[in-house]
Each structure stands twice: as C-alpha cells, then as structure tokens.
C-alpha cells in the first residue's frame, strides 16, 4: 500500500510564507539595483557636465641673482639664487580648486639646483587667477663633472635654458562637495639671455626672464 503524505495547514502556511519572502527579496533587490543604477547615472552625468579641467600655469618672470660654480678637487658646487613669479588660472566655470602642499624648485639640465621652497596653500574660485612668487636658493650644491661644460656651452650660445617646476596636491570643489587629493606637476621652461656665469652677482644686475610662457601641467 502506498503512503499518503498529508501536509498540515501549519506546514502550508510556512511554505506559503517562504514563497512570499522570496518574491519580496527579489523585488527588493530589483528596486535596489534600479536605484543604484540611477545614482551612478546621475554621478556620471554630473561628472560629464562638470568635468574639471586641469589648472593652467604660466611663467611671468624669473630673475637669476646668482649662478656661480666653485671648483673643488674631484667635484664642483653651485650657488644659485632665483626669484620667480607664476600665474595660476582656474579655467573651470563651476569647479573650485584647493591647492595643498605646493613646492617649487629650479632644474638645469635635468638636475635640481635649488632646494624645494614651499608656497602657502590657497583656494582658487571659478575662473580666478592667482600670482605666486617664490625665492629659490641653492647653496654649495654638489654637481656632476659635466655641469661646468654644459654651463660653458650655454654661455657660448648666449642663453641659459632652465626649468622652473612646481609640485603639490589639489582638490576639486563642486558646490559643497570636495574631492580627495590629486597630485599635480608643473614644468615651465625659461630661456634667459646668458652673458656670463657670474654676471648675476658681479653688480650688473640679475639675468631676467620677463615673458609669459605657458607651462605644462599634469594631474
């Protein structure tokens, strides 16, 4: 004789309740996925609409007050003193920029010739500009043996090619929202009339660069 399996009303209620919960969970997950997709789409739309453009920098002025080589047996040292002015511009119409941990220095032939000089942190509003000035100094910095040869070659050519650089971190500000920190690098090329290695410290005045040139900026 075959067995007859009866299901009690209580058991049926439990089974029916499980089915209802399963359907509810499926509907809840579907609604949650739709909500998340909508939020992501909104974020993407805002990003595409307010996509921040990287800041623009230009070199306004660079004065070399000292650029002297001292020859010591087996190696040479360099003393340098440079005053520079950078113009910073925020090209964004709806995005502000916070600048943090900014430092500037000078480089010649791929070699850093001044210590890092910190600049004050600041906020730059929509499409605002800011002038940044700094004094760069390098005292008794050891340089490679080929450094003197490079200086003499530039002296013969009558011009000094130097890189003035800035590094730091920035944060984007959209409304009340502020992003995390992003590293940025600025590289400005200055071509300065160069008559003598010691011209800048011999009483004839500094070697000057006074022409605004666009700098390369990476974020």
From TrEMBL:
GO cellular component, one term: plasma membrane
Primary localization class, coarse: membrane
One record GO biological process: defense response to other organism
Topological category with respect to the lipid bilayer: Single-pass membrane protein
Coiled coil: none
Assigned keywords, A-Z: Membrane, Transmembrane, Transmembrane helix
Intracellular or extracellular location(s): Membrane
InterPro entries reported for this sequence: LEA_2, NDR1-like
Residue ranges crossing the lipid bilayer per the database entry: 28-50
Domain Late embryogenesis abundant protein LEA-2 subgroup: 85-188
Name under which the protein is recorded: Late embryogenesis abundant protein LEA-2 subgroup domain-containing protein
